[in-house]
Specification:
Layout lengths: L1 E3 L32 E4 L2 H9 L2 H5 L5 E4 L6 E4 L4 E4 L9 H6 L7 E4 L3 H12 L7 E5 L3 H4 L26 E3 L10 H4 L7 E3 L7 H6 L8 E3 L21 E3 L21 E6 L16 E5 L6 H7 L9 E5 L8 H4 L7 E5 L19 E5 L19 E5 L19 E3 L10 H4 L7 E3 L20 E3 L8 H6 L8 E3 L21 E3 L11 H4 L6 E3 L7 H12 L3
């Protein structure tokens, strides 16, 4: 994928083979077609291209998909013809189509091209001058983007990177997931204007970084899952403008962190598996805003290491993973008083460890996954006046310990998926006056529990994966005037129970997957004037019923 600016001039119109000039600023314009490419632009521009003879050219050698947000159309080339989906993807469409026509944030055309055909076609459509305006190159993995393998021999390699010599203005380069080696980095090292480089999942080593040592304008460098070691970090010494560095999945150790001490412009840093002893090398990174640390093994030195956790004034996001993160280490976290987002994943932190957060008065979001929290420690969070989001996942909560939940009066989002939460817990959850989003998927809830959810501001509710909830439980759910989204997937809801949904007049999204719903239960849904999306995967609804519902919902767009 090549993104760039083009000369201003006449806009694309008619059905000419090639526009005289492309007014795309600042849209993506073209790509070198080795291994596939994506063509992205403003919705109006892409629509004009799609109506031109460009699509006819593409049909000879490409898999084509075009999308833009509502109202939108999707073109899918199936190998024989271009299929037009006028209304775009809907939940009722077959999974194979959904895989090709998923919604995206930007308009785009994706091409899986034969290397020999793509570049000539682009030159004919946009003119050879377009390559001089390219700002971004993305070697797309077609298996991920389109769900099929690219043409035989289309996998880009080190020789492919020689083409970058024709693109003097490239600022962004994404080589992630391909087999580029250290030898290919010679070509990358000549892109003197490069500012962002993604090498995630490539087999490059320290030798490859040596070829990149003169890219002094780099602001983002992603080395995740590469063969880089402590030795290779020496070549980053001159990257004084570097703001983001990703080292997860590398062979870097605690000792290697000393090579990062001079990167004082760093704002985001993701580290690999460490012991925690080298954190003091990061003390001088005063601009650091986001830090991700993984300590996989419990070690006597870890608490001391976390006590040296850098606490720059700007540190706002902290992610701690691994069994080496314990209650003692949380004392170091408490010193990061500007912290707004904290994630604890697979740690040994218990309820007592949460006491260390009392000083984090700016904390807004707390996510705890696969840890030893029972719920008792939630009382310590009462001193956090800004806490709005609490996410506990696969954490063995005890219902009695959740009695302290109501002290979190400002909580807006609460997720408790797979936390063994029983019916008693909802009586405490129902006392959160500001709650807008509640996720209780995969717990042990029954019909009685829903009656306690009197949260008048609740907009999104998920009780999926609770097979003890039936029509009787849905009938006991209080009137929630703000409810927009409801998931009942994997419950025992039937057609009869859906009649009770009429009272939720503002409902926009409804998930009934893996339930006993049939065509007979769809009538009440037609009466919900704001309903836009219904998921019926694994239900008894026929294709005719799905189509009828799709037409009804589509008319409201």
């Amino acid at each position: 994928m090549l993104r760039g600016l083009s000369p201003t001039g006449d806009s694309i119109a008619g059905t000419s083979d090639r526009p005289r000039r492309c007014d795309l600023s600042p849209s993506l314009i073209a790509a070198v077609g080795i291994g596939g490419l994506i063509l992205i632009g403003a919705a109006k521009y892409v629509s004009l291209v799609a109506r031109s003879r460009a699509i006819e050219d593409l049909r000879r050698f490409a898999v084509v998909r075009y999308e833009h947000e509502g109202p939108y159309r999707s073109w899918h080339f199936n190998g024989e013809r271009v299929e037009v989906l006028e209304s775009g993807p809907e939940p009722a469409l077959e999974p194979s189509v959904m895989g090709e026509a998923g919604l995206v944030e930007q308009s785009r055309i994706e091409l899986d091209c034969r290397p020999s055909s793509a570049e000539p076609w682009l030159a004919r459509l946009f003119g050879p001058e377009c390559f001089g305006h390219v700002r971004s190159v993305d070697f797309v993995q077609m298996v991920r983007c389109i769900g099929r393998k690219g043409s035989e021999g289309s996998e880009p390699n080190d020789q492919t990177l020689a083409l970058l010599g024709r693109l003097p203005e490239v600022r962004w380069l994404n080589l992630s997931g391909h087999s580029f080696t250290d030898a290919g980095m010679v070509h990358v090292g000549r892109l003197s204007r490069l500012e962002r480089l993604w090498l995630r999942g490539t087999p490059i080593t320290d030798q490859g970084l040596m070829h990149l040592r003169n890219l002094r304008r780099l602001k983002v460098l992603d080395l995740d899952s590469t063969g880089v070691t402590d030795e290779g970090l020496r070549y980053l010494a001159g990257f004084t403008l570097l703001r983001e560095l990703y080292l997860e999945g590398t062979w870097v150790t605690d000792q290697g962190l000393k090579e990062l001490a001079g990167l004082t412009s760093l704002r985001k840093l993701e580290l690999p598996a460490l012991e925690g002893r080298g954190l003091h090398y990061l003390a001088g990174l005063s601009e650091l805003e986001e830090l991700s640390l993984w300590v996989p093994k419990a070690d006597p030195n870890v608490p001391a290491g976390l006590a040296q956790l850098p606490a720059p004034a700007n540190l706002r996001t902290l992610t701690l993973q691994g069994a080496g993160i314990t209650d003692t280490g949380m004392l170091g976290v408490g010193r990061t008083q500007a912290l707004e987002n904290l994630t604890l994943f697979g740690t040994e932190v218990s309820d007592d460890g949460l006491e260390g957060l009392r000083q984090c008065g700016m904390l807004r979001r707390l996510r705890i996954m696969k840890s030893r929290i029972s719920g008792r420690g939630l009382a310590y969070l009462s001193s956090l006046p800004r806490l709005e989001v609490l996410f506990l996942w696969e954490t063995p909560l005890v219902a009695e310990q959740l009695a302290s939940l109501p002290v979190l009066q400002q909580l807006r989002v609460l997720h408790l998926p797979q936390c063994s939460v029983g019916p008693e817990a909802t009586q405490w959850i129902g006392r959160l006056p500001e709650l807008e989003e509640l996720n209780l998927v995969g717990n042990d809830l029954d019909d009685m529990c829903l009656r306690w959810l009197r949260n008048r501001r609740l907009r999104r509710l998920c009780v999926a994966g609770n097979p003890r909830i039936s029509d009787a439980g849905l009938a006991q759910l209080p009137d929630l005037p703000e409810l927009r989204e409801l998931s009942l997937a994997g419950t025992r809801i039937t057609d009869s129970g859906l009649a009770g949904l009429r009272r939720f007049a503002r409902m926009e999204k409804l998930d009934l997957s893996e339930t006993a719903i049939s065509d007979a239960g769809l009538a009440p849904l037609m009466e919900l004037k704001n309903l836009r999306e219904v998921t019926l995967v694994g239900t008894r609804v026929s294709q005719t019923g799905r189509e009828k519902l799709r037409v009804q919902l589509g008319s409201r767009r």
